[in-house]
Amino acid sequence: MMNLDSLLQGLGLAVVAAPALLLAVLGISSLIGLKLHERVVGRLTQAGGLLGAASALAILVLMLIYDRPHVAVEVGNWAAIPAQNFHFHIKFDFNWLTLPFALLSFILIGTIGAFANFYMHREAGYRRFFLLYAIFLLGMVVASLAGTIETLFTGWELVGLSSALLVAFFHERTAPVRNGLRVWSIYRIADAAFLIGALALHHLAGGGDFELIMGAGPWPHSPTAISPTHALVVGLLLLVAAAGKSALVPFSGWLPRAMEGPTPSSAVFYGALSVHLGAFLLLRISPLLEISWLLSAAVISLGLLTAIYGALCARVQTDVKSALAFAALTQVGIIVVEIGMGLRYLALAHIIGHACLRTLQLLRAPSLLQDYRALENAIGSHLSMPEGNRQRWLPERLRLWLWRFGTDRGNLDNWLNDVVVQPFLWIFQSCDRLERRWTDWLTGKPSRESDQVVPRVEAYELTIIDEADLAALTPDASSRTWQIQPESETTYLAQ
Amino acid sequence: MMDFAFPWTLSAILMPLVGMIWLCVRRSPLTAQRDCLVFTALTLALAVGAWLEFISRPTLAADSHWDWSRHVLDGAWLGIDEFSAPLFPMAALLYLLTVVTTLRTKSRRFSFAGALASEAVLLATLGCQHPVGVGTLLILGALWPLWELRRRGQPTRVYRLHLGLFAGLLVAGGLVLMFDRPENGHSLWGVGLLSVAVLIRSGIFPFHCWVTDLFEHASFGLAILFITPMLGAYAAVRLVMPIAPELALRVIILMSLGTAVYAAAMAIIQTDVRRFFCFLLLSHSALVMVGLDVATPVALAGALCVWLSVGLSLAGLGLTLRALEARTGRLSLADYHGLYHRVPMLAAFFVLAGLASVGFPGTFGFIGNELLIDGVVQAYPLVGVAVVVAATFNGIAIMRTYFRIFTAVHYTATVSLQGRLPERFAVLTLSGLILGGGLYPQPGISSRYHAAMELIRTRDASLGAVDPSDRVLAAEQHAPLAE
Questions:
Q1: What's the gap in Å between the CA of B31 and the closest CA on chain A?
Q2: pLDDT at B479
Q3: Is the pLDDT of residue B465 over 60?
Q4: Pair B120, B205 in one domain
Q5: Residue B5 sits in the same domain as residue B121
Q6: Are B231 and B273 members of one domain?
Q7: Which of A176, A427, B18, B50 could make an SS bond with B8 (beta carbons 3.0 to 4.6 A apart)?
């Protein structure tokens, strides 16, 4: 059995090392200004993905043959202060939850890599795309297989960074950049909740190892030693983190915005994998849900709310990517409900099936009109959209209200702006004004040289004139040309 | 066996002074940058030598009879210790990179002789352990920006008021402590005066306006060189930490914490790139102060790690912004500039350095931030939450600024704005340090932990309240259980 253990350790390391090496090569070449040929980048990406996927598959086969439900790959301490019992421990777990998710990541990201190799051909940002792709792949693999909560956080952060930069991939336009910043801001809030929750778990359990935190039994039947009250507090923090990452209510507004990125990244990141990472986190901490019914109730409520919200919005979207985004949100909401109800394997199967379906749909999205045309040519008439019977049961007024709700996307973004962003800006802009008065008084004359710096108004591509236009700015409207006007500070920050 | 030690520390301090005299004698603006570059490079080599000698032969470095500088100056006055050893070469590197990346078009505005003089004072401050020496050098070091502001005809009142108050409080606190009776313990008045002086020098709210004012009026290079080494935190470690009672430390923690969150939030709303950088720096230096004053081994080690990582990453960020400003003029964050296509390397480095400063995984700051937050949460859980909030705001501010400067439009220019060879050297050097320190953090962590323990021992010995070994033991018992 010693040989089998060594083999599993080697394969386990290869699963993580392959994307890490890919990132190292692409990152270093980018930093030193070495422009790798497209073909080289494509081959490296294929090799990294294939090596990692093959190693993960081999581990799965060996686990099935030798009936090993759990394989732990110890890498060691990244950093440690033994006298203070501080260890940043790196360990990867291969079990019936993590391995399918890692394999799913490899398969979908590999497929998207092959697709993007053609889709992004001769695009100005080809190398940048694949660099971000490599960061995302490494982040997903590390997050999927993490054996400690710190390692999971590392992967989680990598996924967040690559996602935000991919949303802003077409960075010569304003709308993708604004949306990228929005996504990044939501992710940072989620990361903060995750970090606090992770530290709390670390202290409660005496370490960051999932075996310590969630119990040593095979997933999902491992009992945790944490008390129900602590589980509720920590679980709520991690639920906020999951809500941010999986675009659950009230953070759902970033998901359609994220569709500003290139189609391959939209497919793999928001339709397939990134949007499921929050649900995966909830599955990973499912023993906490077992011992706190309040936490389970919160998870179910949030999932249900998200599913209803997603379903209402998806029905009224006028562009295919937004419709798919909200449809994905509906399914993620249902998956979260399943997790809250304790249906762990069902949720895992749902994630895998849903991720594959959405990837296919999003990849087909750019040629949807072509498909429809082919379909209509084949049947010899236009496709009709008959009104369903269910809709007739609803009163006209309610239907209109629901339609408005869906079209406005529940005004979730505006609500967040009103409740969080605007007060934040008001407070700190007031502080800034007070500081200006104070230094002006001390100096005896205007004290800020920076006030004389004039914004480059002529370079504006898109400008919002007032609050009324704020509501009209949707990702779908980004390609329109708007009047060039100076932009108020409050308005642009709110975006 | 005779022990011989080259006087690395003293030579590193004297080298920039020699350089300053050389530049003053030659008075040639055409060769000033090149000459300054040679002297700062030699200073860095000597500073690295001092550091390496400390690592390899710490006992010899402390006790060598062959180090003639120790015959001239008392050993307690001059010499690096575990705490200051890595700060010494880092400060020298900061000066070298600033001089390297100064564009020729700006070389007449930037005072190279003044920079060399300030480097000598900075290194002397970092190489001095005696409180009187540290205080004197801190006051002396504050004169360079004042001289530069006056030379450029800029308003100095805000700077003079704050730094004058700082100097006055420092002297007053020092005098009170010198003349109080040791058997009664340290005078609370003396500690209080010193603490306020340190808060002013660190730019802690509400004493921070001189820092923003300096960034407004001084050259960007000078402001970076004066603020990035975080001498306020250094003053806290050397002057306040050893003698301050718990209450004083708690007040400093609360004020620093407020500053960390406030400055991070202010960084998000700024419409000028210099003010953004200034608030970012203030927030990070306040976070370091929080960790220093929590004064548990883990928090202190974390703060010292963050000090190094923030020093390197924010120096890189500042130099990047300075390089951009030299090309485009003062950058407003009220609009987009779209510089990515013109300077992709600087754009990539901006993201790397910015994320390193907030402790992104794989960068130098990651483990340090983890240690800092972990240590602070152990001592004061709510303070730990606020530290995370500050880091979150800082992360948002950095990416917002990245998008504002580098994206959304096409920057039109008639000449190439690509990074020059010296700038590439600076970028690659700092990137190597940021990523190298992030991927292989253990030596840095161990070194900072030993420095933290040394500082705790010094504090315990100075207060005399508990036996140092008991304190260390107690800290270990309060640490979380082993994994």
A1: 29
A2: 43
A3: no
A4: no
A5: yes
A6: no
A7: B50
Write out the two tokens for B388: 């995370």
Rg (CA), chain A: 24
Minimal-distance CA residue of chain A relative to B349: A31
Question: How far is A92 from chain B, CA to nearest CA, in Å?
Answer: 15
DSSP annotation of A477 reads G
pLDDT digits (tens, 9 = 90+) for B113-152: 999 999 999 999 999 988 999 999 999 999 999 999 998 8
Q: What is the mean pLDDT of residues A461-473?
A: 41
pLDDT of A14 higher than 60: yes
Structure tokens at B410: 């096409």
When divided into structural domains, chain B yields a total of 3
The residue that leads in pLDDT, A366 or A411, is A411
Contact yes or no for B334 and A209 at CB 8 A: no
Residue of B nearest to A449 (CA): B216
Q: Which of A352, A312, A288 is nearest to A149 (CA)?
A: A288
Which of the four pLDDT bands, split at 50, 70 and 90, describes residue B477?
very low
Q: Which residues contact B70 (CB under 8 A, 6 or more apart)?
A: B64, B78, B79
Contact B361 A158 (CB under 8 A): yes
Residue B80 lies in a domain: yes
Q: Do the domain assignments include residue B27? A: yes
Q: How many alpha carbons fall within 13 Å on the CB side of residue B280? A: 34
A17 Cα distance to chain centroid = 23
- Whether residue B302 is found in the same domain as residue B427: yes
Q: Do A157 and B360 touch (CB under 8 A)?
A: yes
Which residues constitute the domain of residue B224?
130-244
In this structure, the answer to whether residues B181 and B71 fall within a common structural domain is no
- Residue A297 forms beta bridges with which residues? none
Q: How far does A379 lie from chain B, in Å, by closest CA?
A: 45
Residue B394 has a pLDDT of 96
- Higher pLDDT pick, A394 / B446: B446
Spell out which residues of chain A touch residue B476, defining contact as CB-CB under 8 Å. 83-85
Residue B166 lies in a domain: yes
Confidence band for B58, pLDDT divided at 50, 70 and 90: low
Question: Which of A284-293, B166-175, B191-200 comes out lowest in average pLDDT?
Answer: A284-293
Kindly state the average pLDDT of the residues A425-449.
93
Q: How far apart are CA B128 and CA B162, in angstroms?
A: 24
CB atoms A202 and B395 under 8 Å: no
Residue pointed to by tokens 């605007």:
A422
Answer whether B395 touches A (CB < 8 Å).
yes
Co-location of B398 and B445 in the same domain:
yes
As a dihedral over the C-alpha atoms of residue B343, residue B348, residue B354, residue B356, rounded to 10 degrees, the angle is -150
Where among B215, B244, B273 does a domain terminate?
B244
B 36-65 residues with CB < 8 A to A: none
Indicate whether B249 belongs to any domain. no
**Domain edge (last residue) among B192, B220, B244:** B244
Residues B53, B136, single domain; the answer is: no
Q: Where are the alpha helices (DSSP H) in B180-245?
A: 188-202, 209-217, 220-227, 231-235
B-chain CB neighbours of A458 within 8 Å are none
At residue B88, does pLDDT exceed 70? Answer: yes
